[in-house]
């Protein structure tokens, strides 16, 4: 794949956004697909097989994968929190099964008998809160959710304007999105879904930044209630310096025109969305390039990631993108120094490179740093055994679950015969 492809894509997008003549919707759609995925972390390349397999066959394959893939099918008890601007935030709760052996202080030591003192209610359980990334949704935690169901109380939520949450009300009125706003959204979800008891905060990409923003604005909450933190494929700042794997000239071109292109695309959302649906092959190739690194990812998982990202409207992509160049929460990291922390990234992540995780680890020297070989940005889907295994270890270290209770973690490797 040529490294000049992303430059050409951005240039084409800039030319297409004002297209109004015959075929203009298609050109804008290609721009919407390319730029929308670039902002989400997919910016280049169409796989060679796209040139050798017929369009009709590829469409049938996508429909078959949509019909048979179990990914994203897990559901919990629904609830809604209300953000400070009135936006309704959708979440689901998976409760721990009765009888999970956890002592009164929550140490989770195997075989420990739980005591209840006369006149006192049982302590609130530990709740693990999962925050997803940009252009994704709570279902992106499918494998971790499957492995941990019944073992621990968990909350999965959709960030504003993503998944089943309401479109941000302040954004509908023209207000910008900031990472601090997402931190306040997380606080609203915690207040609604886990108002008492210890917390374990897990965040991927934008979700990790959301966790940092929570700590920055609510340090007392972190001090009093947070038992552990997992920061996966994320960054504490300096995202404007990320190259997306492009040569210097390509990066400069992208940085120069991308904000304006996104604004223009967002203003023609209906037109662009129509075109995105017509350019599914290009869209799938872009997602694969920047979401995964290994070659043996189950095609159904790759299609699942594609569905998650393509479900994010282009105007939402445009609204959120500027927040990342302004994001800087390095000053919030010391709030996590007194709790177990897992920092994990893929070694070939082109969106939030592993060097950003290493920078977080420099600020938290007692944290566990895991760099996963042959892994891209969606490492929790690409290498679920590794991610869930390290997360399970974190839960054990923090006393959230007994070691003996953590079982299999799933796999996305393509199975023989599939």
TrEMBL record:
Which Pfam family, just one, is annotated for this protein?
A: Abhydrolase_1
**Domain AB hydrolase-1 spans what residues?**
127-384
| The keyword Nucleus is annotated on this UniProt entry | no
List the coiled-coil residues: none
Q: Which GO terms describe its molecular function?
A: hydrolase activity
Which SUPFAM superfamilies does the record cross-reference, listed alphabetically? alpha/beta-Hydrolases
Q: Where is this region: Disordered?
A: 96-116
Q: Any idea which UniProt keywords this protein has?
A: Hydrolase
Keyword Hydrolase listed: yes
Q: Which Gene3D superfamilies match?
A: alpha/beta hydrolase (3.40.50.1820)
Q: What is this protein called?
A: Alpha/beta hydrolase
User: What species does this protein belong to?
Assistant: Streptomyces violaceoruber
């Amino acid at each position: 794949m040529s490294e000049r492809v992303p430059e050409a894509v951005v240039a084409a997008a800039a030319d297409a956004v004002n297209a109004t003549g015959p075929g203009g919707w298609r050109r804008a759609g290609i721009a919407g697909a390319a730029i929308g995925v670039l902002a989400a972390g997919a910016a280049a390349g169409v796989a060679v097989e796209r040139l050798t397999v017929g369009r009709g066959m590829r469409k049938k394959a996508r429909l078959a994968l949509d019909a048979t893939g179990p990914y994203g099918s897990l559901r919990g008890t629904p609830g809604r929190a209300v953000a400070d601007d009135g936006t309704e935030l959708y979440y689901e709760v998976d409760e721990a099964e009765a009888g999970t052996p956890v002592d009164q202080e929550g140490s989770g030591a195997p075989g420990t008998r739980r005591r209840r003192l006369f006149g006192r209610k049982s302590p609130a359980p530990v709740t693990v809160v999962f925050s997803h990334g940009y252009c994704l949704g709570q279902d992106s935690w499918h494998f971790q959710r499957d492995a941990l169901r019944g073992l621990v109380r968990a909350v999965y939520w959709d960030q504003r304007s993503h998944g089943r949450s309401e479109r941000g009300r302040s954004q509908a009125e023209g207000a910008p999105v900031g990472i601090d706003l997402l931190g306040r959204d997380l606080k609203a979800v915690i207040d609604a879904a886990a108002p008492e008891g210890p917390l374990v905060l897990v965040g991927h990409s934008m979700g990790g930044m959301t966790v940092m923003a929570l700590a920055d604005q609510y340090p007392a909450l972190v001090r009093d209630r947070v038992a552990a933190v997992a920061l996966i494929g994320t960054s504490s700042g300096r995202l404007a310096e990320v190259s997306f794997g492009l040569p210097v000239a390509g990066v400069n071109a992208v940085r120069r025109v991308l904000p304006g292109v996104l604004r223009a695309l967002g203003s023609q959302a209906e037109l662009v969305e129509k075109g995105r649906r017509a350019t599914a092959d290009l869209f799938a190739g872009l997602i694969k390039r920047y979401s995964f690194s290994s070659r043996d990812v189950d095609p159904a998982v790759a299609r699942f990631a594609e569905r998650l990202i393509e479900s994010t409207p282009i105007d939402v992509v445009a609204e959120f993108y500027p927040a990342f160049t302004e994001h800087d929460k390095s000053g919030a990291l010391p709030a996590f120094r007194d709790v177990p922390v897992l920092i994990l990234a893929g070694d070939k992540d082109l969106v939030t490179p592993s060097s950003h995780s290493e920078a977080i680890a420099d600020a938290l020297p007692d944290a566990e740093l895991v760099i996963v070989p042959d892994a891209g940005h969606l490492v929790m889907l690409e290498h679920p055994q590794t991610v869930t295994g390290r997360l399970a270890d974190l839960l054990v270290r923090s006393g959230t679950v007994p070691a003996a209770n953590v079982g299999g973690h799933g796999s996305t490797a393509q199975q023989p015969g599939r």
